Amino acid sequence: MSGTLISSLVWVPRGKSSTEPKRYNLDDTELERVGKLGGPGVLEQLREEMEGMDVGEGEDWEDVDEDDEEGSGSDSDNEDAEVDGGDVDMDTEPQEPPKPSDPNDLSAFKMDEYDNEESKGVAMGAFANVKGLSFYRDNNEDPYITLKENDEEIEREELSLLPTDNIIITARTTSDLSSLDFHVYADSDENLYAHHDLMLPTFPLCVEWLDFPPGGSSSSSSSKGSYVAVGSFDPSIEIWDADLVDGLYPEAILGPSPSSEKPEAKPLGTGKKKRKQMVQPAANDQYHTQPVLSLSWTPNHRNLLLSGSADGTIKLWDLTRESPMPALKSWNNIHKGEKVQGVEWNKSTSNGLDKAVLSAGWDRIVKVWDSRAPEDAIGTQVGSDVECIRWDPWEPTSFFVSLENGLILAYDSRTLSSSKGSNNLSTAQPKYTLSAHDGAASALDINPHIRGCIATGGMDKVVKIWNILDEESEGVQGRKREISLATSRDLGLGKIFTARWAPDPETPLTIAAAGSKATLQVWDVASNPGARKAFGDRLKKHGRELGEVKKGGGVVVVEGGEDEDTDEE
User: How confident is the model at residue 281 (pLDDT cuts 50, 70, 90)?
Assistant: First the structure.
């Protein structure tokens, strides 16, 4: 399908998902929770909608639908007209959004124009479409549900998971809708299939998995679950229950109440030219006011979530607070008000590094700083726009940066603090530089199971696996560093926007990737002879063996999806 993409993905570790996912139930308890989550007036509005949509005996669904349309004209009629600010000819057949002829052409999404779009001050989050929703207390009365009560046992079996299954969550957008798609990956039988999805009201930009029950939903900090945080064009962050099927509302909202007016861009002035120049909402300490570009969670501080935004701020959220919640802390000057492209916790537990943060902005500056003392941040200037940042899980003081010019830079943060220039930025050079892609290196991940194994993906549509041999990876003192391409593959995904290694040691060379064709694929890199030769001995040192070579070069596509031609080197 043209005009579609997957912007981000995240793995759920094995054993972290419920083996029996729950189906959403809008009962009285849930109504009370949603009412508190939505803010003043939402609970009453929901109850009115539910009472108004109950279908009585002898009353046709069409009659109810017509009555609802007549009674809601003041709130929802001409919704499309409000978007354009002009009149709509109701006799004219609605036109679909233009779709690009090139499957890799992303112009339909107008990603480079979102700063200039004038917001209407309408809630864009999970409560954006409360008006017009239809509720039924009994699924047997809902004309849109064909699965009735006597089929629930069959459905329960179909939704059940094995403890060895992985869930992969992708943020997908087409020309007319956005969603979180939950896929099941079973390594033992090389199976990848869609499990369920959640509709999103706006374009998702980043996703992060966490196990902490948010929004005061649990009285015990030791309680665990499976949740996914979503950053999008809407400045509020939503956290959804990943074990809940067909959920309507998130578990928590990080930001203002959905019932309050959203910050909106305003024209620079009243003149013809100034009306076209939009002034974005000013940043504040309580919540983000522009799109959320990056999220990071760490098991070292389970109740804390970091976020970076186009409003130039980095915020810290305490998930024990009731939702909707304000930020616990806000750092507004780490990148001097420039958009924050990436932020990541250091997941090490040694020497206080668990409180270290890595961030990158559109000022082309990458910084390392202690969340307790951000004023002591150290940074370095890079020569191109930053695409991705990653801490090195094998050397917790080191980090990697991927750039728009296709380069990968490796730094040791200890050298940054010892070589500051006049502008308080480090003059230290990278440990090494890797020319990875023709075009932007838009995806980057460091293998947590094999030292010296790096995955990159680019706008050149190729996923590459790099082998870094040095004295640390080889355990040989004085070993000269060697960098080589272990293998690469065009997976038929279009431009690569995201690629992440599996988190489980049982699948040390398994990677998931996606991009401009909105297709997810899982690649067992160990099925490639070059990769087996490069990394097999290193795994043996850790007491593990590579699995058997899998058919199809180790590439697993979504069940029922289109098979793509792939090219491997």
Answer: confident
Kind of pairing between the strands at 191-200 and 204-210: unpaired
Q: Which amino acid is located at 80 in the chain? A: D
Computed over every residue of the chain, the mean pLDDT equals 81
Q: Report the alpha-carbon distance of residue 108 to residue 498 in Å, rounded.
A: 20
HSE at residue 28, side-chain half, CA atoms within 13 A, is 0
Q: What is the 3-state secondary structure (H, E, C) of 456-498?
A: EECCCCCEEEEEEECHHHHCCCCCCCEEEEEEEEECCCCCEEE
Q: Would the pLDDT of 206 be above 80?
A: yes
Q: Is 71 exposed, middle or buried (0-12, 13-18, 19+ CB in 10 A)?
A: exposed
SS3 per residue for 195-243 = EEEEEECCCEEEEEEECCCCCCCCCCCCCCCCEEEEEECCCCEEEEECC
Which one-letter DSSP state was computed for residue 290?
S
Q: Report whether 250 contacts 223 (CB < 8 A).
A: no
Cα separation of 331 and 284, whole Å? 10
Encode pLDDT of 50-84 as tens digits: 665 544 444 443 444 444 444 444 444 444 434 34
DSSP three-state, residue 314: strand
Encoded amino acid at 369, one letter? W
Question: Residues 291-338: pLDDT tens digits?
Answer: 999 999 999 999 999 999 999 999 999 999 988 899 999 999 999 889
Q: Which residues pair with 184 in a beta bridge?
A: 167, 193
Which distant-in-sequence residues (6+ apart) come within 8 Å of 177 by Cβ? 199
Whether the predicted pLDDT of 422 surpasses 80: no
Rounded to an integer, what distance in angstroms lies between the CA atom of residue 65 and that of residue 533? Answer: 64
Q: Which residues lie below 8 Å from residue 96, measured CB to CB, with a gap of 6+? A: 175, 176
